[in-house]
User: What shape does this take?
Amino acid sequence: MNWNISGSEEIRTKKFIKFIKVIYFCLLIFFLLPLPLSAANIPLSKELASYIGTLEKQCVKYGWTDIKPREIPWEYYRTTKKKHPLIFVNFGNSGKNCVLFLGAVHGDELPTVYLMLKLAHYVRDNPQIFKDKCIVIAPLVNPDGFLLRIPARVNANGIDLNRNFPTKDWYPEALKKWRLKQHKNRRYYPGQKPASEQETMFQIALIKRFNPQKILSVHSPLNFFDFDGPSSDLDSFEHWLEKISKESNHPLRKFGFFPGSLGNYAGHERNIFTLTLELPSSKANKAKEYFDKFQTSILKFINLSVKVG
Assistant: This one.
């Protein structure tokens, strides 16, 4: 038998062996390297991982076992006085129909956190909801107040974040009304100057970045819908809200706005449709019940088209 190999055959053989080695190397890399990470399991920074771990423990404490904060692709750029990240998540990228959700502006309004975390899970699992939309959810605006052993309305500096926005009437009215009408009650202290708090600047930054046409801020326990946001389409929006109020069996009330409040800053001065959902109580064990009750209203709010004039 002749084992001699011609020059051309030898070259082809060497190329084939080289090709096999390349394939082998590629397969080796494929199986040894981890699979590409999805948005939900990208490694968290040390600071964010620690905070999410704390938040998960708090959820378990309140019996919110269906909430998994680590599964949501949170972003943050600011921290509080106690170095807690101010987190938010953005679904979708349309600037034409953007809605901003805010929870736990007051740290002792416990079920508002659950509603916003649950909403983040729901929107993530139902991507058709944010098709041609932008949905931004900041579930915990006041983590310093919420994470206390006894949760507090105010932040770590003792300031009511819903009195700290830089509204036009802040300097002439905020401290005066706090002294005269609220009798210096520390729960409503607006601070010594507007926009002094990182949590306030965080909300302002979200409004500037995403330019929402609608804002829903969830509070408790006053038990009503409250609307602030004059516009050319105001009448039709109020009719819509009256219908939602009846459907959800939840009262509609014109509560008014205060110096430094979100309703004043966003709704009154910037003509953004700003709706406050006041839950019936601040009890953590009512949170799941409230999400079930208001889920349909929240989804309708997302889909509502508004005309800002």
About this structure: The two ends are 93 Å apart (CA to CA). The chain is about 40% helix and 15% strand. The domain at 44-303 is CATH 3.40.630.10 (Aminopeptidase).
